[in-house]
Amino acid sequence: xxxxxxxxxxxxxxxxxxxxxxxxxxxxxxxxxxxxxxxxxxxxxxxxxxxxxxxxxxxxxxxxxxxxxxxxxxxxxxxxxxxxxxxxxxxxxxxxxxxxxxxxxxxxxxxxxxxxxxxxxxxxxxxxxxxxxxxxxxxxxxxxxxxxxxxxxxxxxxxxxxxxxxxxxxxxxxxxxxxxxxxxxxxxxxxxxxxxxxxxx
Length: 201
Fold this sequence. Notes:
Elements: H1 5-15, H2 22-34, H3 37-53, E1 55-56, E2 63-64, E3 81-85, H4 88-95, E4 103-106, H5 124-132, E5 138-141, H6 147-164, E6 169-172, H7 188-196
Parallel strand pairs: 3-4, 3-5, 5-6
Antiparallel strand pairs: 1-2
């Protein structure tokens, strides 16, 4: 496709976004051309403001526009429960369930030797420091059910047991069959996990 240079640049920038291919980038670029200049400026300002104003919470390392995020400053939260996640987007996923009322700790990734990411690159030291304060009674490891996520969860569980013994309970979110799915479509690893994490009814 031959675009005018400013349009070609916009399409190219949209293509850099995750999950956006050439056709989606083109649709987004043409949408920006159709909207008013005021709407386009509002979009541009929102992008710039996010880059300028969003930082990491000093306590849990979630995205926030304050020193401490709203979750960490919420007095109604249970400070004895700590959910450990890989990325800030995982906090959003757990919060949508309305089932968890404790606090969070964002690691900033998962252990991935292939990508050169070791335990020292994550916020595991900060996690140990938080737990050492003595208020946390249970840590829920909520990393993705991938090799990297499982490796990270096992490393943290071992670190917790080495540092605190049985004084802190360490649990892992259950894995297995998704709700509404058919067993014959499930892969072998998913079925194995579903059997291993079964519970009494």
